[in-house]
Amino acid sequence: MTTDEKTRPVGVFDSGVGGISVLKELHRLLPHENYVFYGDSANAPYGTRTTADVRKLSFAVVKKLLTQNIKALVIACNTATSAAVVQIRERYPELPVVGLEPAVKPAIERYPQQRIAVMATPLTLREEKFQKQLLRYQGQAELIPVPAPDLVEFVERGELASPALQEYLTKLLEPLEPVSAVVLGCTHFPFARPAIRQVVGSQPWIIDGGPGAARELQRLLNQANLLNVQSATGHVKFYNSDSDPAKITLSEKLFAATID
């Protein structure tokens, strides 16, 4: 494997800007890699669309990213993963592909037989992938699906600490208490973590799938001998289907933000 091949970028995409929460984890673990992020904000949110729609949109984005000569793909969107990851892997068998799924397993391992809220888009919660998780962990914990489609829109607007967001989250989460963990099953949601924390209090563990996706990317790149061995920090390029320059500005702002 030549150095040039190893320095090719990793393609990352989401229905909008939420997947930047995953991009941050990828960059944290693998800072020497180059990344191309594509947000499909013009078609967001994916979570209220049909599976066929999301699959079609996902393939269109992958096609765009392939023109950037990517060496791997991260679907930084739980909804797109649920709808299209199997078909994308079938279409591009030589391309390492990482998908996202709600981090239910680590939540159950930490809090067995306890109440765990799973916040996600309606499509993610109704798709076969999540329904299989419910069956797999039946009896090991009480999993409480929490559809939160409007939360995507708050993040897309860069509205992360408004009274309206606080009111929305309060209506959504207060009736659930008490829970031991809150699984953020959409990549937009980690940007609302501080606001979620204000509603649920200091006790519940709030977890998302970003760190796990980063570890899986590292494993796949290492397996394919594609890890970038250069010592310099890699570059990150942002693209968005929404032609408003404010989307790129928001993308850069979110990438720089501290969300822990």
Automatic annotation (TrEMBL):
Catalysed reactions listed for this entry: L-glutamate = D-glutamate
Pathway listed: Cell wall biogenesis; peptidoglycan biosynthesis
Keyword hit for Nucleotidyltransferase: no
GO function terms (MF aspect): glutamate racemase activity
Residues involved in substrate binding: 14-15, 46-47, 78-79, 187-188
Catalytic residues as annotated in Swiss-Prot or TrEMBL: 77, 186
Protein name: Glutamate racemase
Protein's organism: Liquorilactobacillus nagelii
Phylogenetic placement of the source organism: Bacteria, Bacillati, Bacillota, Bacilli, Lactobacillales
Gene name in the database record: murI
